[in-house]
Amino acid sequence: MTEAKAMLASVSLIPNKVIRTLPSTYKIPDPLPWVQLAGPLAAAEDAVARFDERLAKSPIRDGAISRTHFTDACASLWLDGELVHLDDLVLHDAGMDVRAPTHELTRAHAVLRARRRIAEAKPGWALSAPGLSSLRGRGGEREEERTNRKEGKGSFELAEDGERDEVDLEEPLGAIEADPHLASAFAAVDAANARAERRLADETRFRPERDSLIYDPDWDEEERLDHWRDVIDQTRGLPPTLAGAIAADAWGEIEPLEHTPWLGRLLAAALLRDRGKTRSHLPCLHAGLKIIPRERRRPRDVAARLVVHLEAMTAAAESGRKDHDRWLMTRNLLARKLAGRRATSKLPALLDYVLTRPIVSAGMIAAELGITPRAAQNLVAELGLREATGRGRYRAWGVL
Fold first, then answer.
1. Rounded CA gap, 113 and 136, in Å?
2. For residue 98, how many C-alpha atoms fall within 13 Å in the half-sphere facing its CB?
3. Mean pLDDT, residues 36-63
4. Residue 73, number of CB atoms within 10 A of its CB
5. DSSP readout, 260-319?
6. What one-character DSSP code corresponds to residue 165?
7. Dist. CA 367–CA 376, nearest whole Å
8. Least confident stretch, 45-54, 206-215, 330-339
9. What's 356's DSSP letter?
10. Is residue 160 predicted with pLDDT exceeding 70?
């Protein structure tokens, strides 16, 4: 018994060593394998530029871009092995779910919101520090608060009544001691110090403690993000599509964010906008990668992975151009039914709204046009839209 206790005591004295995982590293091939990259790079540059130019002069540009947001969000979950129906995502976005939303559906909606925010912002916003903080869910307001910390020289803000007493710090010490407001000035200094300490404490509490069962405590997101930014800075002299392919591949290898793998391709698409390759749309890299066969989607060689990303850009641009031409032709055919309508008719507004969503329901039309659901069904019948869901209880129509 004593031997067992001695053994336990000796074991208890051994310190527990935590094995820290080393952060992933990524290096751009030097020199780049131009023999492998030249063909896919030229095809991607041409396809992306052609599709962007087509959208720039298209009468249905806003509707086509809005529809691609939904398809790319569903494709992002499809690449992770999750199936999210396009009609469910549209209804969930409109707040008209048929059933309780699943976890996969909420994730797809998060991708949809992120795409919309990147597309509506300035080209360089997503890659900036405030943009990355906002997309990560950390809030961009913290960056603004840091800029507001600087206060005017020689002025102190009282914590209680908000009054300011200006004190000339360049006067002699005797003049300051003789000042009747000396006590209030020192109180203001103490209040300013306390306020600064509270702000610093808020900065340390900004990142709350995470559950170790969900988040790895050794996962240093800031260090990984800095490494990813360094890789992006090294692509300044490369063609935009190749830089976007390297950005997407580096995000997959470095994994800066533990539970947001889809954000890397959105940032790669934002990089194409920031470098001036696309001016009219945000490329759908998830939808393009979905077209690539599964056995070719994740090779081990870095050069082969870059070729896959370039081919995904080409596939996304070509598929988007075909969809755009089909929607434009359908719009021209449906526009013929608007001839002879009175000026107060809701059919033109319905046609424009249908082109912005893959499917529309009677409730969605009623909320958008300000009419009753029964009137919405009558407009759908007059326009001759095709029923898309086949549901008798919850019908929806769309331009496929």
1. 12
2. 14
3. 95
4. 28
5. -TTHHHHHHHHHHHHTTS-SS----HHHHHHHS-GGGSS-SSHHHHHHHHHHHHHHHHHH
6. E
7. 10
8. 206-215
9. T
10. no
Q: Residue 68: CB partners within 8 Å, gap ≥ 6?
A: 281, 284, 287, 320, 323
H/E stretch holding 83: none
| Exposure string for 290-300, b = 16+ CB within 10 A, e = fewer | bebeeeeeeee
Neighbours of 333 (CB within 10 A): 11
Q: Tell which residue, 237, 234, 239, has the closest CA to residue 277.
A: 239
Q: By C-alpha distance, which of 278, 268, 272 is closest to 305?
A: 268
Strand order in the sheet with 360-361: 360-361, 396-398, 386-387
Type of residue numbered 331 = R
In terms of DSSP H, where are the helices of 172-235? 173-177, 182-205, 221-233
193, amino acid identity: N
Give the predicted TM-score (pTM) of the model: 0.75
Helix, strand or coil for residue 386? strand
CA distance 265 to 252: 9
- DSSP for 219-248? --HHHHHHHHHHHHHTTTTS-HHHHHHHHH
**H/E run at residue 179:** none
* Residue 116 to residue 349: CA distance in whole angstroms: 22
Rama region for 17: left / alpha / beta (φ>0; ψ in -120 to 50; rest): beta
Q: Which of 66, 88, 84, 62 is nearest to 75 (CA)?
A: 84
Q: Which region among 20-34, 38-52, 107-121, 228-242 has the lowest average model confidence (pLDDT)?
A: 20-34
Q: For residue 256, say if its preceding peptide bond is cis, omega within 30 degrees of 0.
A: no
